[in-house]
Design a protein that fits this description.
By secondary structure, the protein is an alpha/beta fold. It folds into three domains: 60 residues, Arc Repressor Mutant, subunit A; 88 residues, no CATH class; 234 residues, Metallo-dependent phosphatases (Purple Acid Phosphatase, chain A, domain 2), CATH 3.60.21. It binds manganese (II) ion. This is Calcineurin-like phosphoesterase superfamily domain protein.
Length: 408
């Protein structure tokens, strides 16, 4: 059959004749007489029942189910992708025809629960010699269930809900710099109430005042990379922990350290690298903290296995410790040549093994930090229970380490 381009005039006429009760073949004949278009009976009948002119619709139809509401003259097609196509006749003004809410309601959809994907209203008038013509539309819409859109502003507001601006007055500036190393806290296994004394001790160390505080978040802040299950980033099954509670406790602990640091130093920075337990969850956690403390500079890139930073003539590379551990000194020199060249004290800070170990490797201080985390069932079973459970804070002068504070 010849490919006939249907105009709205043709469609309206077919609909009109259909309403008058003419058969499809009679309508096809009339269209030929009036417009000279050659439509098959089947094409007319398809259009009357579906609102489609193309035979491609017949193929599409196979993947859909159809419901006819004869009383309302509405036809609903439920598409395979979950959207619905509704065809009906509506009496409305041209303004209403442009109002998606009105059209949705006219089709019987709740406009708060559905969104229009496509909308087509074909205008035609119906009337007799005795009365004014009525504006009618053959209306076809495709709708999908409304999805609540993710709103970044709402999330930020939620993160900020309890934040009081920190009043910074008379910051006690010192001459030295403090590095607070936080590796492998494993919140979930570690509980906030186990760290109350640690927070007090860290507060007392901070009171001295520093020209800068660097907080290293060296990975595995959270025991699980997931919220609904307890697994590492590589899906190793772990003893179950409550991750929402863990998140709140990590927020309290690290948030308190940040707030105390802001009171005793004009410059506070957080340096975060991925651990093997919580690659994604730690990234999101630190991301949230960075929104909460805009006055703190955060270095938090996704999938950062290592980073380096410096102040004065001190250069520090940070890595969780599970990857490329032995090559870290030369990786430091090769990947961060400027920091390497400007530093007189060079250090690689790592964790992962939950036990402190400090080695001088050709002048690079390889410092593997322990953790205040208690032993978990896995460590107890394997006898990994003997390291000191401590945190360490390092005080630096312009070009060397001056003191190590033990917090346990
Ligand atoms: Mn680890």
């Amino acid at each position: 059959m010849a490919n006939i381009k249907w105009t709205d005039e043709h469609k309206n006429r077919v609909t009109e004749l259909g309403k008058q009760g003419l058969s499809s073949s009679k309508i096809a004949q009339k269209l030929f007489d009036e417009f000279g278009v050659n439509l098959s009976r089947r094409t007319v009948s398809r259009y009357l029942s579906t609102g489609h002119t193309s035979s491609r619709y017949d193929k599409l139809k196979k993947n859909t189910s159809k419901v006819k509401d004869v009383k309302r003259g509405t036809e609903i097609v439920i598409n395979q992708d979950g959207s619905q196509t509704s065809i009906t006749r509506i009496q409305m003004t041209s303004e209403q025809a442009k109002d998606p809410d009105f059209v949705l309601r006219a089709h019987g959809f709740d406009s708060t629960k559905w969104d229009i994907i496509s909308l087509k209203n074909n205008f035609w008038q119906m009337g007799s010699k005795d009365s004014d013509p009525v504006d009618l539309y053959q209306s076809k819409i495709t709708v999908k269930p409304r999805v609540v859109k993710f709103n970044v502003d709402d999330l930020i507001e939620a993160l900020n809900r309890n934040v009081k601006p920190i009043e910074v007055k008379n910051i006690q500036q010192g001459e030295t710099s403090l590095v607070i190393s936080l590796f492998d806290l494993h919140f979930g296994i570690t509980k906030l109430n186990m760290l109350k004394s640690h927070i007090n001790q860290i507060g007392n160390i901070l009171k001295k005042g520093y020209k800068r505080v660097e907080i290293i978040v060296g990975g595995d802040v959270l025991h699980s990379d997931f919220i609904t299950k307890t697994q590492t980033a590589s899906n190793t099954q772990l003893d179950h922990v409550k991750t929402i509670k863990a998140l709140n406790e990590a927020e309290s602990f690290i948030g308190t350290i940040i707030e105390m640091s802001l009171q005793y130093s004009p410059t506070v920075e957080v340096k975060a690298v991925s651990g093997n337990h919580d690659t994604d969850s730690q990234y999101l956690f630190i991301w949230g903290m960075s929104k909460k403390y805009p006055q703190v500079e955060f270095d938090n890139e996704l999938n950062t296995e290592r980073l380096a930073f410096s102040f004065d003539k001190v250069g520090i590379m940070v890595a969780h410790g599970n990857l490329a551990l032995k090559r870290l000194p030369m990786l430091f020199a090769n990947e961060y040549p400027d920091i390497w060249a400007h530093s007189k004290y060079r250090m690689v800070a790592s964790g992962h093994f939950h036990t402190e170990k400090k080695t001088d490797v050709d002048g690079v201080m390889m410092w593997q930090f322990g953790t205040a985390k208690p032993n978990d069932p896995y460590e107890k079973a394997n006898g990994y229970t003997m390291g000191r459970k401590h945190l360490q804070l390092l005080e630096f002068g312009k070009e060397r380490l001056l003191a190590t504070y033990e917090v346990e």
